[in-house]
Amino acid sequence: MYFYKEDLINIIVPDRPDPAAAKVIQETLGGQFGEMRTMMQYFFQSANFRGKDKKYRDLIRGVFIEEISHVELVQTTINELLNGSGYTEAGDAGVDGAPLDEAIKHANPHHYIMAAQSSLPVDAGGNPWNGSWVYSHGNLIADLLNNVVLESTGVLQKSRIYEMSSNKTFRETLAFLMVRDNAHQNAFAKALETLGVDWGKLFPIPNYDLNKYPECRKYVELGYHNAQFNFRLDETKIGEIFQGASPSRSQGQLQVTDPPKGFSIPELPEMPNEHSPGLKDMNS
Amino acid sequence: MYFYKEDLINIIVPDRPDPAAAKVIQETLGGQFGEMRTMMQYFFQSANFRGKDKKYRDLIRGVFIEEISHVELVQTTINELLNGSGYTEAGDAGVDGAPLDEAIKHANPHHYIMAAQSSLPVDAGGNPWNGSWVYSHGNLIADLLNNVVLESTGVLQKSRIYEMSSNKTFRETLAFLMVRDNAHQNAFAKALETLGVDWGKLFPIPNYDLNKYPECRKYVELGYHNAQFNFRLDETKIGEIFQGASPSRSQGQLQVTDPPKGFSIPELPEMPNEHSPGLKDMNS
Amino acid sequence: MYFYKEDLINIIVPDRPDPAAAKVIQETLGGQFGEMRTMMQYFFQSANFRGKDKKYRDLIRGVFIEEISHVELVQTTINELLNGSGYTEAGDAGVDGAPLDEAIKHANPHHYIMAAQSSLPVDAGGNPWNGSWVYSHGNLIADLLNNVVLESTGVLQKSRIYEMSSNKTFRETLAFLMVRDNAHQNAFAKALETLGVDWGKLFPIPNYDLNKYPECRKYVELGYHNAQFNFRLDETKIGEIFQGASPSRSQGQLQVTDPPKGFSIPELPEMPNEHSPGLKDMNS
Amino acid sequence: MYFYKEDLINIIVPDRPDPAAAKVIQETLGGQFGEMRTMMQYFFQSANFRGKDKKYRDLIRGVFIEEISHVELVQTTINELLNGSGYTEAGDAGVDGAPLDEAIKHANPHHYIMAAQSSLPVDAGGNPWNGSWVYSHGNLIADLLNNVVLESTGVLQKSRIYEMSSNKTFRETLAFLMVRDNAHQNAFAKALETLGVDWGKLFPIPNYDLNKYPECRKYVELGYHNAQFNFRLDETKIGEIFQGASPSRSQGQLQVTDPPKGFSIPELPEMPNEHSPGLKDMNS
Amino acid sequence: MYFYKEDLINIIVPDRPDPAAAKVIQETLGGQFGEMRTMMQYFFQSANFRGKDKKYRDLIRGVFIEEISHVELVQTTINELLNGSGYTEAGDAGVDGAPLDEAIKHANPHHYIMAAQSSLPVDAGGNPWNGSWVYSHGNLIADLLNNVVLESTGVLQKSRIYEMSSNKTFRETLAFLMVRDNAHQNAFAKALETLGVDWGKLFPIPNYDLNKYPECRKYVELGYHNAQFNFRLDETKIGEIFQGASPSRSQGQLQVTDPPKGFSIPELPEMPNEHSPGLKDMNS
Amino acid sequence: MYFYKEDLINIIVPDRPDPAAAKVIQETLGGQFGEMRTMMQYFFQSANFRGKDKKYRDLIRGVFIEEISHVELVQTTINELLNGSGYTEAGDAGVDGAPLDEAIKHANPHHYIMAAQSSLPVDAGGNPWNGSWVYSHGNLIADLLNNVVLESTGVLQKSRIYEMSSNKTFRETLAFLMVRDNAHQNAFAKALETLGVDWGKLFPIPNYDLNKYPECRKYVELGYHNAQFNFRLDETKIGEIFQGASPSRSQGQLQVTDPPKGFSIPELPEMPNEHSPGLKDMNS
């Protein structure tokens, strides 16, 4: 069973609205290698786990639980990027002009038509998230290798998306997730090490240096690239795998730690012109 | 942030393997009105919430957190229904015969080809779960009405799926979820009552009598149809809505309660013929 | 604007329930070459028509209007095939047993889970109808050729589906539509004749003899293979194309005629166990 | 059976070409809450209707028939918005330059590649219309509630799309449809009133004031928000539901009336450079 | 069995990067009427061929083999259009600024997120290629007619895409393919002539004059519009159909010839910022 | 450019018709981990290759070319399994009875409705092949790892499908492909070895013993699990990678060899009742 505390796993840094950035970071939420995919893939792999060697199940499940918080972080980031991008303060639904005419120029139009300027379960091209992307084939080694590919591709994509806007809200979230993807890549690579693989200098994939991303540095200093946050309220064997030397060239020791302290969720203002939430006069 | 305790929200009652039942109950997991839809819909609605009237956000989020446990319950139910449905104990991958020849006759072939006889993120027809089903339009009233339709259709479908097999594993899970759908229907209907609607005798939808389902009775006696389990580790305003008389004709008083105590997850045996988990000899 | 009279375009011949037949004839409703496709393709082609040569637009639109009635005919046929296929008269939702256990063996499970034993906008494989199938490319010649392929494939598929059950409800509808497809094939082939093509012995495609299908004969005798029913309440130039010798080897003269007199729609009984329509007690 | 008179249900107001507006108003045609969805949903609900209480079937069918005309109105609106948006009068296919280079900047490229600058069965993101969106579950109350959500969401989306361009062709069609959506919302809400619901101040959803939209006012003055146009050529029981006080706060009395008088369909010019219709020289 | 020689079937003319052109020419690669469709459709039609009249199978297969080279030509064209469109030479992943900010304005964002600035199996709207587009219905006449529609639509779309950019890389490839589509249209039209059809003045569809496209002229002078390249290493009966007078008004004699001599594939430079290929330091 | 010789890459062993086997082996043709996926993935990866280290491109392209022959082998296998599965010799389209009634019981209905009893570009569940499955992300290491997962999953699925029928046509093709998948798994694993990975005892994935499959033994004796067939008509650097000790525990030396000698393609008989090919009387 799952429990919740109303905290984000990382900070939302405020910056200007940026609908084009919101469009492309949707890949990180609802794309084939985004957080919804990692969340659901590890959910199915851990629920469908076979056999007695529970340390692998605990590892996969441990990452799964964190991914739920990642989904929430990206949803909130998109909301922040879209908030205030259309109507002016004084905008009124029936007046002349077309307050969204400019806003949708390089935006995903569904952000405005469907979602009241908030996140959607779609990718950067507007394609909806699809269950056929989940890989859970029951062979533990194939599953772990696929997870390595998934985490590697996730960070590869993020390193490209990062170049699409200098918006601070956008880059901070991407930077945090790139560091965490590194940790999760380490987790699955390490699990394969327990089965006898010696990775040599292969990791990290792609071959990036987190310290070149200014926003990443503080997370590296906190050791987040080598930490596995523990969200279990009971015992877990995750530490039997996630320990010892990192399989990445960035080195360091892997360590199971407490989660971050939690960050508050920004409050989205009402948008009467968008009928959102739509309660005005209803309560009067 | 999300936390986990390795417990199922309800019991898995053992019975014989039943791949045809596994196929149709996939609708309850990955169908358009299944638990993955409810989980993701309430996740997006609560993350995208606008305005200060947080009791509605807390209500939607409260149901969302329970739905994660529902997804896990249905995954586990499908695994139990498929377990042992193919190979014999002595079955061996290279021997003569075709141990899965009979098993796939009325089954979803992907249960055997992809999933090592376990659950998939698809519906009863084998179509993958799709993000376009999530309804989160930002107008709170429209969102709540859609949630009422979603819960009503969920229980309507379950009452039909229930008739497709007398398997006990299958029916127990369906029965538990039908009672919980009733509670969630009450939750969203009640939220609309706070906005002035008087539902008359409309609920429950469909017009069923839970007591006619033998497996449901004990859950009704426990008051599960009028309870909202609270999975929050911090404060919540859900009780400002979920209280007072039930909007259903079944009557009773709505009440926020502790979650069930939790049930253990059955261990799935290894299947060497299916190379699942595939560790044999790797560790030697 | 569109007007309606509550009549079917052909008779529904009663026979036993046949869920497997209902499953495969869905191809004729919601498949890539089914009646929903023809209806929507001709709708878009006529609405998007360019230029002054309106006899072509009137021809396409004339076929479009009839296709709406075809969709209704196939929906009703499917309903008749499914009706009574599950529960017994005395069946009751909560009793022991599983009244749908046998029904779904070779059926589309969504006919029972979603549709209360009635028609769905899907094909024989359960895939939903898809707008990308509509061909309306604006080049009249390419559009007409595609329409010839569409009608030819429609009747080719029906001649194969016909062999999948001897059910009378099923075969009567298929037979009527095969004859009408022949007429529509003639319509588009004739339109291409006005542009200079001489088809030789190419038609009909496939090279079938309608008179070998016992159910078809009466429609051939009524001249339905060479008739274009006129559903216009105002003037139409369709007769400028649909006239003269048939382009098919079956010969005869093409002629615009009045529609059939109309047939009554069978009333579907209530299904309290399916909560369909779900009004019981609501009105009391 | 269905009959046709070559008239649009509302006027097409001329204005400049606007491909970006054409792109977003596709949501109203082929989107999940657009006119193709309402048309097909009510088509299936009325064809699959069970039981003797025919006034509900007549209501659903009555709205369905009007929706066919709505689809045609939006198709024609899109054609008008795209017409003249690319080639100059003197444009010639083989000359230097790239006449469509600018046109596609904020357009749906398929409007130019597939559709000869005319409408497509897709949404604002270019996703094709999909049959899985049709809700026809056989439980009349669930169907009616879903119809309320569908009409409410339709008008909510239109009120947002309206802000995306001040083009008159675009806004006039949206305004007419917003008023009609209000009438259809009233129809389904009223049907639920006959089953005992008291809506209080819930309607309209969203909580908009039609009179703030300048183009809407004349339709409100004509009473179109409280009228149900009758397209039946035979008897109908629709008036047994659609009568009495409006369930919306806008008040007034519901009334079944004759349809609008009909408006002529603008003729689209030939586009030789687009080979549309492609007849030039063929007839010579 | 299939064999390969590392040569392109036509030249890649160098020009400036043009991501908007890359986006729209994806239709020619992965669209419903693009080269992947023709390749796979003729693959299935020839593999599934029935009966002894092998000249038709050889014709279809002959076109299929050429289409593999067409797919490769369009992939390479897209790569050339995207190459150099983002990062500057000195660009570095972690520096300030956002090197892709401008590049993605009118681009397909997946060209940058997924494909390291290279081709994807999608259409101009970003929709993935789909197997349901393949038409192989087993009736040879219907298959041939569908192939005529496919080739006609392919060239119709290319004549429209051609107008979307004056980029030389883009137009040269389109021009070559338009001439080859004409040859393939002739091939299938001629096959239908052997079955008795007299096409009159119907072809080419659309009614274009290849000589008006400057880039096409040289290919017309080489006779490519009336030639069928032979890629068979054994005997083929294709010449029994592809001979005699062209069915197009452009006239000339059809002739089976040797393939073009082959053109070298441009080398794509490494992109360290894109981690592509990602080998740097790995080999050190 | 691509060249062709009309030979299959392996033998088609005759056996009885088996439509259920045809249905499930479609996964190997059009499934997410089937031969169409491997073919298109390696096509895109080799066409989009960046940089000067051409031995990797040659390796990927070499496997791609073989995969075209694999697609043809599975198409032909499916045709053989379906051939004769419906109509009797004397079957006649118009007679009483329903010759396909039994055939479709456990079959994919589209094999009979669309494909004239032959192969389709779909998976075992009837879902069409989809371009979004192609992984070509431009990072060579991630691409190679994904290829390892793809080949491993391909053989894992085949080892499960193998158990679904004892049909000889079916098993012979599966056995040949399992051995070839092993060779391709070796190819990509070896490429990663050149980048420093030491796989230990990880391969093969899954952990199977080819010699337990009776049909596999002769291919193992021929050394097919350690051979890379060379289909290039010019030079290739594939041998710079594909050489030395196998990365699998099955051991042996990797070696580039000539392709198999080729096997004749069985001729499919005409099916007049299916109008396939549909030429009867057309040529008279």
Oligomer: homohexamer
SSE pattern of chain A: EHHHHHHHEEE
How many distinct beta strands of chain A? 4
Structural class call of chain A reads mainly alpha
* Average pLDDT level of chain A: 94
Number of helices of chain A: 7
What is the 3D shape of chain A?
Answer: globular
Helix content of chain A: 40-55%
Major sheet strand order of chain A: 2-4-3
Q: What pair of chains forms the biggest interface?
A: A-B, 74 and 74 residues
Biggest β-sheet description of chain A? 3 strands, mixed
Strand content of chain A: under 5%
Q: What's the layout of helices and strands?
A:
The structure is a homohexamer of 284-residue chains.
Chain A: E1 2-4, H1 19-30, H2 35-47, H3 54-82, H4 110-113, H5 140-161, H6 168-193, H7 214-221, E2 227-229, E3 244-245, E4 253-257
Parallel strand pairs in A: 2-4
Antiparallel strand pairs in A: 3-4
Helix pairs in contact in A: 1-3, 1-5, 2-3, 3-6, 5-6, 6-7
What does this structure look like?
6 copies of one chain form a homohexamer. Chain A has 7 helices and 4 strands. Chain A has a 3-stranded mixed sheet with strand order 2-4-3. About 2% of the residues of chain A have low confidence. With 284 residues, chain A is mainly α. The interface between A and B is large, with 74 and 74 residues. Chains A, B, C, D, E, F: Belongs to the manganese catalase family. Chains A, B, C, D, E, F: This is Manganese catalase family protein.
